[in-house]
Every structure is written in C-alpha cells, then in structure tokens.
Design brief:
The structure holds two protein chains of two kinds. By secondary structure, chain A is an alpha+beta fold. Chain A has two helices and eleven strands; from the N terminus they run αβββαββββββββ. The chains are: A alpha+beta, B alpha+beta.
C-alpha cells in the first residue's frame, strides 16, 4: 500500500514531497475507522486536517478536508428514487470519502468470478482501468459484465458473491486515480 | 478425430459462408464458420470487442464441433458434430438494464422456428426449449452483455440516471441439438432431445437456419415492445401454472409459477400466499403441489 504512514510517522523525518491524494484518502479512512474526531498531519509546509463530522450530518456537509492538496469532493448526485435509504446513506458516505460507487444496472445475481472455481475479476487493493470488468450480474441467463466506469483502486466490495442485487445497488467502491 | 458423420465435415451440415450469407438475414451480415472451435461464444465475444466495424450487429459464428462449449457459469456443454452451435453478436438499441430481454426473446424466436419445422417445443423459464414427453431439452440459450462506458464528467450531468450506461453488445449463444442422437450429448436419454429424435430425420442446414435467423430477428426487433414478446412467450411456455422448485442464493423456494413480471421475471406464489419475483435461479418443474 502506502510507502510510509504519514499519520504515525515523524513529520520531521519524512521526506519533503507533496502528499499524494491516496494518502489523503487513507487519512479519511483512518478517521472513519479509528473513530477519533480529527487527524492533523504536517509535512514541510503542507498541513492536512481531516475532521469527522457528526454521525447524522447532512450529505451536503461532507467530511472536511482542509488543505491545498485536498481533493474536491466529487459531489456525487443523490441516488435514484428506487435506491433504498440505506444505499443513499452509503452513497453519501462514499461521496464524502472521495470514493466512487459502481452500481448495478440490473436486477440479478452478483458474481465476482467468471465461473465457479475461477479467480475473482478483482479484489480489494487492485488497481483497475476504466472499462475493465469488475463482476457479472446475471439476470435471466444473461451474464452482464459490469465494467469499471473510472480508473482507480478497488477499496471495497459491497455485494456478496452469488447473492441477489437490486437495480442501482452499489457494488464496489473505487478510489479514483489521482 | 473420429471420421463418422463426414457429411457434416465442415461446420453444421457442411454449410459454407456464401450459402449462409445468401439468406440475407440481418443476423448473418458477417459470417464465420469453424469446423472445430473451443467455443463460438468466446470467438464471437472476441470479435465483438474489436468494435462495430469488425463485428457489426449480425456477426454470426457457427461451429461444427465445440471442444470447450459452455453453458451458464462455465458449465460444460456437450457440443458434438450434428448440433447447431452458434453465437451472434447483437448491438441492439436498448438500455443496459433492458439487456436481459434478449434471452426470453430469443427463446420465443427459437420456439417459433421449431414449431415451423414441426417440433412442438415449449419454453421453460426463462429460455430453455423442452419437448414432451418428459420435458427433454432440445435447445439451450445463454447470453453475455458488455456495457459501454460514457465519460464520468457527462455521467454526473445526468445525476443518477443509468440510461447513460449504454449497451455495447450482447453475444447470444444458441445450442440446438439438431442432427444428432440425444445419447451423443453424454446426458441421460430422458434429459435431452434432438430434432432427429423428434422428427425421425435429419434437417437440411438451411431448412433450420433460415427460419431460425428470421424468427430470431423478428423477436429481437421487438425488444422495445417487450410486452408483445412476453405474450408470445406465455403462449409458448410450459412453466406458468405449474408447481415449481427454484434453487437460488443457496436456498430452495417451492411454489406455483403464476405469471411473468413486465421485465420477464418469474412471479412465484408461495404456499403462504406471498408472491416473489425471480430473475435468477434453477427452475425445476414439479408434478405435485408443494
């Protein structure tokens, strides 16, 4: 993964380099996973503060990332009307994390591999190119290959293999390529 | 290689490309015939990925023998000489979420062509073709679709609408047990049928391919008038009204197949009265009520 942890490392000893966006994304994850309110990182002249927002904050007030190196929140649009409330909140969280959601265009069965016993199309941590097949959703014996609609890193697989998925259900979180 | 059935030495029934193209079918604009091929589906998919110029709508791949024929989820599918093993690249003008209309529509097309030949085949949901007695399978259908991406920037502009995920292509695979004995397929006799077993004779290649391509084309042109296709599906099916057992997601559902949903899903009435809509699962026809 990352070469050097910008959070726990000694800022004084860290090499002078711009903090890549993936590190910012990692900070956002750390705030989320650790449950701490705020993480501040200084590297040379660059300081980044990642602050968790209140649990039930509105989606239009995303997790704040203050720095000149901070990515623009992608501002993903609100979910389609038939997406469940659960999907909507997951989506808001993903948008706040700067993550991109790949959603199912059909109702069907989610398969991570082309056939039983074969290896999965992608795994968490893989870098994928736009257009690369991420999974199959089968509906009425039509195997729909679902491509990545952006290039980036697979951060999370949101659906369970060989189980049903609904129209517009989020399947993957991708971290967009910087 | 065994040299039996030499009359079918080149692909199905000794077909040649000019003969197939002479049918003038929109589903046979570009024709590739293989005496022996691992899988027509893989060949067609490879062509389709090379773009619309190389593989326009109606690119037809036929194999005499498939050495690696596969069914759903990579299951082996016996494809000995004498069967019609083919895959067609389709580029229908429909949205990605409508792609699953292709398989039941194809089943209707194949069903009509078989009736034209004198084989009274009926559709088991969603798209197997069976003959009585015993519900023996005479034709299997599967399809694979590929979705075309549009740039992310323009996707945001249409906020949450999936209409921007266009269908690039669908590869429709059809395996029809034609001029062979059901025993050639390596399946128990009571599970499979062939045109030979039902008609008591072999069919001429164009006698089969002509009606098949024309019926398929007619149904595939009606994908945007899907309710009409489903009416014909209902007229040809053998699943609705029957007690069925469905395996899906590792569980078994038993109930009565009562209707199709507007998108072709199977509506199942469970013993408790609850209704579920299925878009997946292995359906088994039962003789008795659950």
């Amino acid at each position: 993964m990352n070469n050097g942890n910008p959070v726990n490392g000694d800022p004084g000893g860290a090499p002078e380099r711009p903090l890549p966006l993936e590190d910012v994304g990692r900070l956002v994850e750390l705030v989320q996973e650790s449950g701490v309110g705020e993480i501040r990182v200084r590297q040379g002249d660059l300081e980044i503060t990642v602050r968790a927002r209140e649990e039930a904050a509105a989606p239009q007030q995303p997790r704040q990332v203050e720095t000149q190196a901070a990515p623009e929140p992608p501002g993903e649009p609100a979910s389609a009307e038939n997406a469940s409330a659960e999907n909507a909140s997951a989506e808001a969280a993903a948008a706040a994390n700067g993550l991109h959601e790949v959603r199912s265009p059909v109702v069907g069965t989610f398969y991570r591999a082309p056939a039983p016993g074969e290896s999965d199309y992608v795994d968490v941590g893989d870098t994928v190119r736009e257009g690369q097949t991420l999974c199959i959703v089968e509906a009425m014996k039509l195997m729909n290959e679902i491509p990545a609609d952006i290039s980036g890193e697979v951060v999370e697989v949101l659906a369970e293999n060989a189980k049903g998925v609904q129209y517009d259900q989020p399947l993957f979180h991708l971290r967009p390529e910087a | 290689m065994p040299v039996a059935n030499l009359e079918y030495g080149l692909t199905f029934g000794g077909l040649d490309r000019e003969t197939v193209e002479s049918l003038g079918s929109p589903l046979a604009r570009v024709v590739e015939l293989h005496d022996e091929v691992a899988s027509t589906q893989e060949v067609a998919r490879g062509l389709a990925r090379r773009g619309r110029e190389r593989a326009p709508h109606g690119t037809l791949v036929v194999g005499g023998v498939q050495t690696g024929g596969r069914g759903r989820l990579g299951r082996a599918w016996g494809s000995p000489r004498g069967g019609l093993w083919m895959s067609i690249v389709l580029r229908p003008e429909i949205r990605a979420e409508e792609a699953s209309r292709v398989t039941p529509s194809a089943a209707v097309g194949v069903g009509k062509a078989l009736w034209e030949l004198g084989v009274e085949a009926r559709i088991k949901w969603p798209n197997d073709l069976l003959v009585e007695p015993g519900g023996r399978k005479v034709c299997g259908i599967l399809a694979e679709s590929s979705i075309e991406n549009v740039p992310v920037a323009s996707k945001r502009a249409v906020s949450g609408d999936l209409g921007d995920r266009r269908l690039d292509f669908v590869v429709l695979g059809i395996g029809l047990n034609a001029n062979l004995d059901p025993g050639d397929l390596g399946l128990p006799e009571h599970e499979a049928a062939s045109l030979r077993s039902e008609l008591g004779r072999d069919v001429e290649p164009l006698e089969l391919l002509g009606p098949l391509l024309s019926r398929l084309d007619a149904e595939l042109r009606r994908l945007t008038d899907f309710e009409a296709v489903l009416d014909d599906w209902r007229a040809l099916n053998c699943t609705l009204g029957r007690p069925v057992k469905v395996q899906r997601f590792g569980e078994t559902l038993e109930g009565r197949a009562v209707d199709l949903s507007p998108e072709g899903g199977l509506v199942l009435a469970l013993p408790g009265g609850e209704r579920v809509e299925l878009y997946e699962g292995e359906v088994e026809h039962l003789r008795r009520e659950p």
